[in-house]
């Protein structure tokens, strides 16, 4: 079933996306397609997996694959590979198959992704200019090109090695003006109806975190990152206010992760499995309301 008038907008959140992966999987298993799909940070991985149409890889990317020792940890960080080993996660794991109790997890199906006609955007933060760069199908003719951009969008400053794309340095797309929920990109693509999958509860607001002086010292060689981190709570909260306004007007369905129990760097398999199960239970519970919002297919 295709709903060409609706955009699917996916928030990031690192390993919190073990929860939201259940919603993305539910959409795939119900055969739902959209007029546009977009994500930043961990939401970029969901975007790629959704368009490739592989529900099991969608689930396990943030559960069993995410908990795999090869994906990182403090040992990886101390060896200079980052807390999350980007080279393994984005350039090795997508090419591999994994044996899993729930079945065989196939390698990322790039031909299926390539033949899916749905427009999409993946965004990352340009480290030098402080602006967002948005990529689409024109920029992803190969699996390497796609995964490099997913990696760029997902790179947590300080915890992952920042990659170069076309000679330019990039970091986490959540540093941009939407705060990690790419409703701005969906609106720029011309959409006015949105299904938004978020990795925080409805009542959540982002408070001030690390003092500005510390951030400016830590990122003294990349001042745009420091500026973006300082501004991020205001950007994030403003985006959520905008989304609530759209919800009140009937133009958005907002899926809030109401029982989130993990943080963005969680790697414990049991906790990630529990997070996924909680997400699936909520997705099943909300499915009638989601389906009602989507209305009649094309």
Automatic annotation (TrEMBL):
GO terms classed as biological process: lipid catabolic process
- Can the keyword Transcription regulation be found in this entry's annotation? no
What CDD domains has UniProt attached to this entry?
Answer: Pat_hypo_Ecoli_yjju_like
**Motif DGA/G: chain residues:** 172-174
GO MF annotation, one: hydrolase activity
Q: Which organism is it from?
A: Corynebacterium durum F0235
Give the protein name, as stated in the record: Phospholipase, patatin family
Does Lipid metabolism count among this protein's keywords?
A: yes
Q: Where is this motif: GXSXG?
A: 39-43
């Amino acid at each position: 079933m295709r709903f060409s008038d609706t955009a699917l907008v996916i928030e990031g959140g690192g390993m919190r996306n073990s929860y939201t992966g259940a919603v993305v999987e539910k959409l795939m298993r119900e055969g739902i397609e959209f007029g546009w799909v977009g994500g930043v940070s961990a939401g970029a991985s969901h975007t790629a997996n959704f368009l490739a149409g592989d529900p099991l890889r969608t689930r396990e990317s943030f559960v069993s694959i995410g908990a795999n020792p090869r994906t990182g940890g403090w040992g990886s960080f101390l060896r200079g590979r980052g807390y999350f080993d980007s080279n393994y996660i984005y350039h090795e794991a997508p090419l591999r198959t994994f044996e899993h109790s729930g079945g065989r997890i196939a390698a990322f199906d790039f031909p299926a992704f390539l033949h899916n006609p749905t427009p999409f955007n993946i965004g990352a933060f340009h480290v030098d200019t402080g602006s967002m760069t948005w990529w689409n199908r024109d920029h992803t003719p190969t699996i390497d090109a796609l995964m490099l951009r997913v990696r760029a969008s997902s790179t947590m400053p300080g915890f992952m090695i920042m990659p170069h794309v076309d000679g330019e340095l990039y970091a986490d797309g959540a540093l941009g003006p939407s705060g990690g929920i790419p409703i701005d990109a969906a609106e720029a693509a011309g959409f006015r109806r949105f299904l938004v999958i978020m990795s925080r509860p409805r009542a959540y607001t982002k408070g001030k975190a690390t003092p500005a002086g510390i951030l400016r010292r830590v990122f003294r060689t990349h001042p745009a990152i420091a500026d973006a981190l300082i501004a991020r709570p205001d950007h994030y909260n403003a985006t959520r206010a905008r989304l609530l306004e759209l919800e009140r007007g009937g133009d958005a369905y907002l899926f809030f992760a109401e029982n989130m129990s993990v943080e963005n760097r969680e790697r414990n398999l049991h906790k990630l499995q529990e997070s996924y199960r909680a997400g699936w239970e909520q997705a099943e519970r909300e499915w009638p309301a989601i389906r009602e919002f989507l209305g009649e297919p094309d």
